[in-house]
Amino acid sequence: MDQQEDLPKPSTGKEFFTVTLSSVNDLVQQGASANELAAYLVLARGAGKRMKTSWGINAIANHTGQTYHRASESIGWLAEHGFIGKLNFDTNQVKTKKPVWQITPSEAALTPIEIALANALVDGIGAGKSNPPLERIDTQIEMGKHGLGAARLDALMVLLHLYSHQLMADYGGINPQSGIYKHWEAAERQCDADGSEIFNLDGTNAAFYEIKGEQNVVYLKFAKAALFYVIDDAERNERFWSAFYNLKTLKFLYETTQIWSADPSKDKKAHPLYTLYVHDQHARASDPYLANVVNRAMINQIDPDYHGFNSDGEYEPEIDLLNGQFRYIANKKTGGFPIGIYRLRFRAHTKDTGKGMAAEQKRVDDWTRLINDCVSH
User: CA–CA separation, 103 vs 19, rounded Å?
Assistant: First the structure.
């Protein structure tokens, strides 16, 4: 296993820092490259709520993959353009004579959007501290046809804009009304007249449904906001998807398949029923999901000798008879809407994040009890 995959579970450490999206956009508007943007994030991480830090060139080099020379140039650029200011020596730092940098808030927006970023996004986590996330963007990203500089900047900008749309308590991930999501459609085989229902859950008013994944969808306004500096629409679209897949490959985000009461990308009254599956091996160690329970219930009714589970007894879609398709359970009258919602791995443990994951767990627990009670009778 390489270091980029050494992530036992998504980071929800209580320590986090904030930046404003207007400051991020202003940096790029004034010509910042990925180096300057990454350096700004490192200094913001070092500053925390104090808005001042003794972190400097060494910290930037250690956390971003930049050389000492490049890190020095990045700090110089940030200071020259007014994003940081050098203070007199901190009275607590007189003996060490470390310079102190003041983070200067952007005035680009009257109501700036503040995004919370886990310290682990800069520091790394576990064994991954020797290969922190920002360094992976610098050293492991795929170049694409527009060059490494563009690929690195695009990945950082899409990542930060995704953070501004991640609402764990409301959507269990990135808001599908503002960002990106994946279509799931009724599977073709084992369907009844309406193209979706497989069979009833005995003794209940619920049924099993079978679905398959389709394409990702992104609102044009989201791509335009994240990569506002790319003027040509076709080029912007191409660079957005390149950045998205780079972030996914480098494990900054992962997909969850969720079942909702209605389409949350269109209906604000829609509410989540449960998360069906978490499409990430490491995240499945901590994020609750219901696929194992659903499949065991179905197998119990129609095929007790089925062996679509791994040696640990966990459901494996790769070895399932449905070849990667999924089953879910919903009330036959009210139905359920399957949708792929993405989650960012490095999450700040804000109150809303805590509420969101607690609600996720409760929904899975409630449905697990309900399904098991039905199957056992």
Answer: 10
Among 304, 288, 286, smallest CA distance to 296 is for 304
* Interval 161-199: pLDDT, tens: 999 999 999 999 999 988 688 888 776 544 444 444 467
CB of 41 closer than 8 Å to CB of 20: no
Beta-carbon contacts of 99 under 8 Å, excluding residues fewer than 6 positions away, are: 54, 56, 86, 87, 89
Q: Is 326 helix (H, G, I), strand (E, B) or coil?
A: strand
**Angle, CA 246 vertex, CA 243 and CA 252 arms, to 5°:** 105
Q: Is residue 330 part of a domain?
A: yes
pTM of the model as a whole: 0.85
113 part of a folded domain = yes
Are residues 335 and 281 part of one domain? yes
What is the extent of the structural domain holding 106?
Answer: 3-140
* Number of other residues whose CB lies within 10 A of the CB of residue 111: 7
Split into its structural domains, the chain has a count of 2
List, for residues 119-145, the tens digit of each pLDDT value: 999 998 776 677 889 999 999 998 888
Phi, psi dihedrals of residue 253, rounded to the nearest 5°: -145, 160
**H/E element holding 79?**
helix 68-80
Buried-state track 180-217, b at ≥16 Cβ within 10 A, e below 16: bbbebebbeeeeeeeebbbeebeebebbbbbbbbeebe
